Amino acid sequence: MLVSPAYAQAAGSPTGTGLEAFLPLVLIFVVFYFLLIRPQQKRMKQHREMVAALRRGDRVVTAGGIIGLVTKVVNENEVMVEVADNVRVKVVKSTISDVLAKTEPVSGAAEKPAKGDGDGDGKKGKGEGGGKAANLGKMLGGKEQ
Length: 145
Prior knowledge:
This protein has two helices and five strands, in the order αβββββα. It is an alpha+beta fold. It has a five-stranded antiparallel beta sheet, with helices on one face.
């Protein structure tokens, strides 16, 4: 015969226990937890808190990239977002990806603005109804008259 028979070497004795065999898997899981799972959970928690704190007057960005102003919180899952003059869209809260500008909380006994346009300067702008409607138009990028 041209091929010599091959003989297998005798198996060596196991050097470790079963626990040592699982140690690399445990270390990989720990690394994945601290590098991937934990930061993602923190981001999800921050997003839930941001969505729960939405209120009327906040400028938001939806997941589709639409920028608008929250005009009404319909219920715990939906908000009305004004994307242009007199164009309102009902949006699911979880699709809001970012809040660009938060409004100040309304306090019942806060200082009242002087007579006029509601911004406290005592002047009423030309052609403006004054107050919140005029400021809303400015926030949405409308031109001043």
